[in-house]
């Protein structure tokens, strides 16, 4: 049966919006992406100032094969357009007692380093990594790469195999509990608990199933794209354009036009335009609030607790630090207290864990000669109207004290450029509900099932992709949301 070529509107040029546009253009459809801002990428953006370049949001790339796949289905060689390398050291961890641990990508070196620096038995570490791999092999296919709204998912061979292993998946204990049972070393428990933050969750609440995440970084690998993270956005936008996708920047969509229970177009400030299908890459809460004001929203899904947010200082630092790597973590002394502040009290503790990302270690043009571009981030609660100006001032002080103490150098004297991103701006710049980095948190057992589906069950011709819907936040998941969504669209013959 031959299908009609569809005219499709994508609202938002976040990574998922761009990926959806590429997939649908490759299927032969005519796709227009509407982006409120002057540049594409949403959270995956960059800042350039006074000789420094900073990736504004994501800094860690895992599963780059999902990006390669977009070039491959377009019939192109990914390496011609997007290059990346695997990092030798995934992350460099610093503790207040001067212990420094390098998480090498080489597994033998990694296990040796973790055991030597923490006193933990290598066997326990190997068991943990194998467990993480088992979780990935059994669950990623179900929760990351398939629709949970398709009954077929639950009866697939993969699901039937997984049901037999349910007791091993750690659904009923927290990540922290599982890690305490696995390890004696508080440092190792903290190091592995940190993976909860990779989707904005709390290790003291999120199910132990989230121990799936270390496998992504420690076994499959952490990657660095040539040119920095923003090269993902640039390379994919160019691919989209080669496939005929049209981008309309500085064009905010104000409303999705409905005819009864059917999406028939979009309205901008100046125009109403007809489309066969509409895809919203805008955060799901704001999609209902702003684009679909006359539709009763699915309140239960939309009111699920949101992930953490972040406070980022982009510092141009006029010195280089040999002891630092691309990814660095300076741990707090009381991790439980830190997460209680973020998820229970809604404020910040006075000893936060600090993440420092330095892309100029690899991409030397990101900073002037002899200097480094520091992306300094702490996890924060999402935006509940806190006094952020006060919290930023307090945090800046404690961050500078902690980094100066650990690096035995007065850091504040070295900062020659500063930009700041806080939860309010993350919310206003990308329309992310409460400024959450990853949509809903995964702090409860049912979180995976309580994300909005990629296809609207109530409004015909309406679809959703991005970090606030299934399967969740983070670049790999956003790319997966675009793929799941695209499976609802037919392939059509391209017009000559
Ligand atoms: P978004 O990036 O949310 O973009 C949505 C786009 O839609 C925006 O460009 C916005 O302007 C546009 N838009 C919204 N409404 C409209 C409208 N009405 N009309 C037109 N345009 C509209 N992930 C990782 O994998 N690794 C990391 O290391 C990592 N670190 C992160 C650090 C930070 C500080 C942040 C903020 C996020 C991080 N993430 C990380 C998460 C990751 O960035 C996001 O999950 C992902 O980029 C979200 O993409 P998205 O497709 O949902 O769209």
Describe this structure in words.
This protein is α/β, with parallel strands linked by helices and 496 residues long. It is 34% helix and 19% strand. The protein contains 16 helices and 19 strands. It has a seven-stranded mixed beta sheet with strand order 7-6-15-16-17-14-18. β10 (253-258) and β11 form a beta hairpin. α1 runs parallel beside α10 (230-242), α4 (122-144) packs across α6 and α7 runs antiparallel to α8 (186-193). Bound molecules: flavin-adenine dinucleotide. Flavin-adenine dinucleotide binds next to α1, β14, α15 and α16.
Could you give a quick summary of the protein structure above?
With 496 residues, this protein is an alpha/beta fold.
Question: How large, in whole angstroms, is the Cα Rg?
Answer: 22 Å
Mean pLDDT: 95
Number of helical regions: 16
Oligomer: single chain
Largest sheet: 7 strands, mixed
Give the helix/strand class: alpha/beta
Spans of at least 5 consecutive residues with low confidence: none
DSSP strand tally = 19
Helix percent reads: 25-40%
List of distinct ligands in this structure: flavin-adenine dinucleotide
First and last CA, distance: 19 Å
What sort of overall outline do the alpha carbons produce when their principal axes are compared? globular
Share of residues in strands: 15-25%
Order of neighbouring strands in the sheet with most strands: 7-6-15-16-17-14-18
